From TrEMBL:
InterPro entries: AAA+_ATPase (IPR003593), ABC_Ni/Peptide_Import (IPR050388), ABC_transporter-like_ATP-bd (IPR003439), ABC_transporter-like_CS (IPR017871), P-loop_NTPase (IPR027417). One of its GO terms (molecular function) is ATP binding. It comes from Nonomuraea longispora. It is found in: Cell membrane. One of its GO terms (cellular component) is plasma membrane. The keyword S-adenosyl-L-methionine does not apply. This is ABC transporter ATP-binding protein. Its main location: membrane. It comes from the Bacteria. Belongs to the ABC transporter superfamily. Pfam families: ABC_tran. It is a peripheral membrane protein.
Amino acid sequence: MIEVRDLQVRYAGRLVAGVPELDVGAGECVAIVGESGSGKSTTLLSLLGLTENADISGHVRVCGVDVLTASPRRLREIRGARAALVMQSPQSALSPATRLGVLMRRALRLHGVGSGKDGRLDEIMAESVAAVMLDRAILRRYPHEISGGQAQRFAIALAIALGAEVILADEPTSALDVTVQAEVVGVLRRLREERDLALLLVSHDLALVSTIADRVLVMKDGEVVESGPAARVLTEPSHPYTRELLEALP
Ligand SMILES: Nc1ncnc2c1ncn2[C@@H]1O[C@H](COP(=O)(O)OP(=O)(O)OP(=O)(O)O)[C@@H](O)[C@H]1O
């Protein structure tokens, strides 16, 4: 689903993200961890061709599309629909005067989901909301009427309704309190298993990562300093920086 080789992202000549190798298959979860400014978000955004003004080299394939050479049209086809980005505070990205149901319906129509005469649109919306354990009544609410955890789950529901095969999540739970974080992670974990989603997660929260990721990439100052199975990296880190991150855990 995601295949990265020798990715280098530079701003004004400075290397801000260098990733030699990153693969995420269907049903897998890979996490990128590291301190603020280490290049995690830049890596994630570059996978959808969303790093404006950056010089990018290497090979990036997402859902079969060669991202670095694809036309804007081809990129628009995978963005949102096949590969969805879930950000830290999705509420701010939602139009404030539009009910969530209207917003979801528009997004689905835009991508041609549930179109035709079979009237599947309502069914798809109801199914996706149920899949993230939200009450259907949420579709009648406005963005300011829902909590951060609900907004996060709605963003995931939207991705599912659109038929996403890949979810790229940037600090999906860091704005939430601990109980709600666990709920959102639980939803992601279940969906990954039930729907074979490929999940790439950016987080500075190693405790969270240990509960969901199969593999971990540790980034520092724009470079991957360590990578491997989560169980190994998080228990027997080989790089001093990873040890530092682990020691900083409460
Ligand atoms: N559009 C841009 N133009 C110039 N520099 C940028 C741009 N976007 C990011 N950077 C720089 O790239 C580096 C990596 O930033 P990035 O946001 O990827 O880090 P991060 O690890 O995700 O940090 P955080 O956890 O704080 O989001 C930073 O030094 C940042 O200032």
